Amino acid sequence: MSIDPTDHLFEAIDERRDELVQLTRALIRFPTVNPPGEAYRPCAEFIGERLRARGFAVDYVRAAGTPGDNDRYPRINVIARHVGAAPGPCVHFNSHIDVVQSGSGWTVDPFAAVVKDGRVYGRGACDMKGGLAASIIAVEALLDLGKKLPGTLEISGTVDEESGGYGGVHYLAERGWFSPPRVDHVIIPEPLNVDRVCIGHRGVWWAEIETHGRMAHGSMPFLGDCAVRHMQAVVDRFERDLYPKLAMRRTDMPVVPSGARHSTLNINSIHGGQPETQGYPAPVVADSCRMVIDRRLLIEESIESVKGEMRELLERLVADRAGFRYTIRDIFEVRPTMADRNGPVARSTAAAIRRVIGRDPEFICSPGTYDQKHIDRVGKLRDCIAYGPGILDLVHQPDEYVVIDDMINSAKVMALAARSLLCGTA
User: Fold this and answer.
1) Are 284 and 382 within one domain?
2) Given 334, 356, 384, which residue is the final one in a domain?
3) Which residues contact 56 (CB under 8 A, 6 or more apart)?
4) What is the DSSP string of 41-70?
5) Do 179 and 31 share a domain, yes or no?
6) Widest distance between CA atoms in the chain
7) Three-class SS state of 101
């Protein structure tokens, strides 16, 4: 009876269970908090030295001049490349190494990497050091089988995804690290559940709206013009005119959760008037009030139409409300992106999920953005998906964790998908 070579691959990953757990714990213990960008260099070097010892060529790329980069907090990315025995495609696994602030509410040390109840706990366990560790184990197991594979395998650990990716994937994509012919297929092990293939994400527009007034003594507000009241009028128009429109728009993108299949607008913050002094308010009429908005857009919407809709609402207030004046400033924008669910990387990953998990995968899109935006828009590489072991609902939460069995299964999926892509059977 012939033995399926896939069984050997899966056995090799099962045998590395303890190694996978220890690798995940080691990565969590680097407190790569962004901002400001702590411990980027030692974490990148840890990954690089591990892969160099296994025959990878390793590059460290500092994103000089990008936001936050300085000698104290250098934006250090690591890219490891293993060239196979014959020409073939390049399969790249990209993970970000930065994590958000730990915050409050933890019952365990967020950087101790506690193991209990079949889980590894810690900031970044789910998003996304468990996925990074699983991709490393997947590639190492694939190479250690001894069968000479064609093509190239790459693994990267990149920075600043949590702040837009400009010191990480965006910087690298501008310089050809994520473009054909160097790379053909990309899997990003983001935490979107072990039985899902994520093919894209909604877009985003962050902006600041400022309303302007005229300062006067607080005892005589009729001599001034309160910018906070003007901002209240903006919020009122949102409630009356804009939110009902957004609720009516629904995308054909398979975005999860279902509420994110609509256009959404979040008011992130409002700041108005003069600051308090020693706990006492300034006795003046507010001459400025600022609002930061987070508008998430669907693939059926253009960024131009979204901005135009907001300006039209504000211009109507100029016409309707005495003294209303405003300015608006762009902060950040990303267009929606979606890969072909029948493309090679999505198809091979879906087939691997069927083999490993035993059920048909769900094709989804993310409500928020991740580094696929830069690979697609800047690198001009369309065959990119997200697939990883983390549970989406745990992202950025206290007591964040990754399930060990999910890491094992995702490593098998990634290894099987990579082999299929390299050998041209996807």
Assistant:
1) no
2) 334
3) 80, 81, 82, 155
4) HHHHHHHHHHHHTTT-EEEEEE-TTSTT-S
5) yes
6) 94
7) coil
Beta-carbon contacts of residue 271 (< 8 Å; ≥ 6 apart): 289, 290, 291
Query: Is-contact 186 178, C-beta < 8 A?
Result: yes
* Structural contact between residues 375 and 369, judged by C-beta atoms closer than 8 angstroms: no
pLDDT tens-digit series, residues 162-209: 999 999 999 999 999 999 999 999 999 999 999 999 999 999 999 999
Q: What does the block give as tokens for 368?
A: 């928020």
Residue 400 sits in the same domain as residue 374: yes
Q: Which of 334, 360, 395 is the last residue of a domain?
A: 334
Q: How far apart are CA 223 and CA 217, in angstroms?
A: 8
Taking each continuous run of H as one helix and of E as one strand, the counts in the chain are 11, 16
Please write the tens of the pLDDT for every residue from 255-305: 999 999 999 999 999 999 999 888 899 999 999 999 999 999 999 999 999
Q: Are residues 190 and 78 in the same domain?
A: yes
| Total domains present in the chain | 2
* Whether residues 313 and 364 fall in one domain: no
CA gap 107, 398 in Å, rounded: 8
What six digits make up the tokens of 158? 């990149």
Distance between CA atoms of residues 332 and 206, nearest Å: 5
Residues paired with residue 207 on neighbouring β-strands, in sequence order: 293, 330
List the one residue out of 305, 36, 292, 260 whose CA is nearest residue 167. 36
Bridge-based pairing of strands 119-121 and 196-201 is unpaired
Residue span of the structural domain in which 54 resides: 5-201+336-423
Q: Which residues pair with 99 in a beta bridge?
A: 33
**What are the backbone dihedrals phi and psi of residue 166, each rounded to the nearest 5 degrees, phi first?**
-75, -25
Name the pTM for this structure: 0.91
